Design the sequence.
């Protein structure tokens, strides 16, 4: 599609949408179960009242507040209804343009809404993810046309570099630098991969982005491919996310149909072919070299780096691998500029970050905040604090590769540096709130069991070390641990961290180390007491 | 595992779907995982004969095919029961006590994760985070995600879902 055609289609869709007095947006994310019945009931209510030309019912991606779903948003008044059931449809439609349905109404002043800063998620919950023209009408794909028709690849890389964007998959590597390495690497054939293998238990940011704005991810990938000179690419998605896969497939078909994928994209000389590869349930495949092995059809075994995939990746060719959220940031930077991007966040951690907030917190759901926002603001203000009158104990970030930050450090800002300084990591964005009822030893044993089961077995430190650490933690859980066990535990953690082949093993001891640092007493309380004999344990 | 098998599935529509996946990738070895996905989708699980045929068609050693099929959690080498109860063991579900559901299932049905009842009525599996953490604790009954339930509500719901015959 030529740029002019795209503009015209966007304009037509905007005019069409503007023709409706009211819009009923129904969250059709995974977290709002039963949304199909709600859409059907609302449509029925609209038709029965002969309002079909005045009221438009649309399905959208995740609106964020999964805890209070299913959610329905009424525009243009920005009224949000919570806990909607199909039986509420008549009342909601009758109330349009009048006093809202009080019993379902969510306060617009709720800090959950007012304290967020939505950029990547700005369209999530506002457009129909299955509707290509909806994305166009919201300004979608203008970044592709700008990049491909008015910028050189080197210019795109410079822009991303200037923005200071860092990888949102967890490690925080500067995106511009990665792109420049792939662009510079020798080789006629280059590949592009989107890592959508969101394996961290407790993380669902990428699922929500793929379900809510699949075109934004595609748009970011097209721009990235153009910048580094890749003509084919893969999106590696977990098989556990069927809805995300389905919406992505549809978005790809529409992008192909509209000349945004395939040959001579937007009338430029640039070609790009994208394919989906389904993961098959292996946490290690989130590691980039393991992911590549899996895309090549084999077992997901990592290999030593260097060489990095940027130089030798898929089929031995230079390969750019970025995460879903990283790609979703790209169109925004191209459209709004590097300075706009850098205006949010801190000096070294720029922009916003999407988090999946869950566990013992009132407002579980999907949020996006400026980097540098404190954990306290996220948990207490946006999340509404810990329910049931219980006390907060810790916030877990980074999943099985991260750590637990204790309640007295809630002033920690979420930046790559600050989370690292307290012994955790930014990770991909899973944030699990833990209250006083959770035992930290049990918690870290849970993570170690996960790493133990997910260890691919290639290197001994991870294969054997995780089993031994798990066994030692079991002794603590059963009050059978001795001082020697504590010492072994600490030594083993260092050993596995320093000698494992890939990130899975290197970071597997992180939760234990973090718990030993902040919750050491819980370990000491679970040791054999001096008066006990080894047989005398409970 | 036999290298060549009788062509008893040549006319099988399910096998045709598997073959189409391989064809789409020009029978290149890298199509292995995609092909296993299709095969499991069509047959419900991966039996030795199917794995052997796939190895043959893609020119991949049978040992490698078995290696890949056993490496990934998603692939099943045994048939599943009529119904499948999946218990999410992601972090949020763990914190909200899903291990109690697993213990209950063990007591109620005599099942550990990965097992099927002798009458083939119910399979119990553990799933690694379905990404519905905000609904934790989550269980999945025959593919349907159900969350935000207390332990008592969940177990009652499972009983209702299976009906008395599941006991």
Sequence:
């Amino acid at each position: 599609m030529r740029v002019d055609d795209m503009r015209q289609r966007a304009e037509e869709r905007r005019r069409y949408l503007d023709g409706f007095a009211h819009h009923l947006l129904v969250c059709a994310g995974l977290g709002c179960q039963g949304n199909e019945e709600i859409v059907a009931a609302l449509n029925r209510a609209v038709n029965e009242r002969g309002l079909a030309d005045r009221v438009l019912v649309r399905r959208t991606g995740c609106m964020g507040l999964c805890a209070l779903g299913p959610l329905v948003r009424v525009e243009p008044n920005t009224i949000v209804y919570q806990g909607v059931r199909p039986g509420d449809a008549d009342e909601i439609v009758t109330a349009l343009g009048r006093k809202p349905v009080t019993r379902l109404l969510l306060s617009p002043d709720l800090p959950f809404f007012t304290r967020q800063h939505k950029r990547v998620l700005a369209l999530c919950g506002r457009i129909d993810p299955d509707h290509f023209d909806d994305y166009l009408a919201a300004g979608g794909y203008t970044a592709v046309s700008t990049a491909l028709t008015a910028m050189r690849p080197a210019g795109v890389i410079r822009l991303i570099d200037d923005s200071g964007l860092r990888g949102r998959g967890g490690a925080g590597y500067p995106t511009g630098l990665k792109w420049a390495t792939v662009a510079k690497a020798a080789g006629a054939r280059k590949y592009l991969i989107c890592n959508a293998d969101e394996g961290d238990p407790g993380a669902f940011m990428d699922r929500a982005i793929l379900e809510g704005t699949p075109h934004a991810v595609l748009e970011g990938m097209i721009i990235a491919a153009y910048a580094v000179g890749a003509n084919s690419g893969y999106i590696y998605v977990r098989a556990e996310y069927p809805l995300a896969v389905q919406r992505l497939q549809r978005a790809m078909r529409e992008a192909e149909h509209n000349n945004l994928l395939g040959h001579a994209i937007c009338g430029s000389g640039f070609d790009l072919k994208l394919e989906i590869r389904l993961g098959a349930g292996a946490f290690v495949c989130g590691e980039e070299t393991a992911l590549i092995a899996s895309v090549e059809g084999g077992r997901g075994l990592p290999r030593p780096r260097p060489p990095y995939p940027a130089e030798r990746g898929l089929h031995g060719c230079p390969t750019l691998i970025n995460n879903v959220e990283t790609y979703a940031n790209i169109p925004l930077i191209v459209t709004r500029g590097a300075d706009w991007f850098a205006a949010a966040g801190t000096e070294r951690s720029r922009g916003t970050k999407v988090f999946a907030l869950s566990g013992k917190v009132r407002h579980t759901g999907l949020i996006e905040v400026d980097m540098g926002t404190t954990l306290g603001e996220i948990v207490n203000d946006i999340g509404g604090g810990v329910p049931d009158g219980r006390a907060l104990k810790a916030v877990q970030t980074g999943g099985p590769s991260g750590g637990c930050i204790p309640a007295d450090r809630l002033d920690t800002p979420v930046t790559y540096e600050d989370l690292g300084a307290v012994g955790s990591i930014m990770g991909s964005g899973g944030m699990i709130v833990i209250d006083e009822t959770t035992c930290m030893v049990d918690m870290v044993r849970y993570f170690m069991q996960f790493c133990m089961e997910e260890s691919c077995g290639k290197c001994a430190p991870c294969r054997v070390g995780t089993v031994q650490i798990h066994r030692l933690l079991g002794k603590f859980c059963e009050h059978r641990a001795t001082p020697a066990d504590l010492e072994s535990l600490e030594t083993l953690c260092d050993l596995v961290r320093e000698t494992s082949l890939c990130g899975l093993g290197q970071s597997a001891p992180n939760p234990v180390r973090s718990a030993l640092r902040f919750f050491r007493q819980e370990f000491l309380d679970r040791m054999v007491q001096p008066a006990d004999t080894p047989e005398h344990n409970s | 595992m036999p290298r060549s098998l009788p062509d008893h599935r040549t006319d099988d529509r399910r096998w045709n779907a598997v073959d189409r996946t391989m064809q789409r990738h020009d029978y290149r070895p890298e199509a292995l995982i995609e092909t296993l996905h299709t095969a499991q989708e069509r047959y419900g699980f991966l039996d030795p004969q199917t794995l052997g045929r796939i190895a043959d068609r893609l020119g991949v050693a049978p040992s490698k095919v078995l290696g890949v099929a056993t490496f990934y959690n998603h692939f099943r080498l045994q048939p599943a029961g009529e119904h499948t109860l999946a218990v999410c063991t992601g972090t949020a579900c763990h914190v909200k006590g899903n291990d109690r559901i697993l213990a209950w299932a063990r007591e109620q049905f005599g099942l550990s994760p990965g097992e099927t009842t002798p009458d083939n009525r119910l399979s119990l599996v553990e799933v690694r985070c379905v990404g519905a953490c905000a609904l934790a604790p989550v269980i999945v009954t025959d593919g349907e995600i159900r969350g935000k339930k207390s332990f008592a509500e969940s177990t009652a719901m499972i009983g209702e879902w299976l009906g008395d015959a599941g006991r």
In short: Confidence is low (pLDDT under 50) at residues 1-6 of chain B.
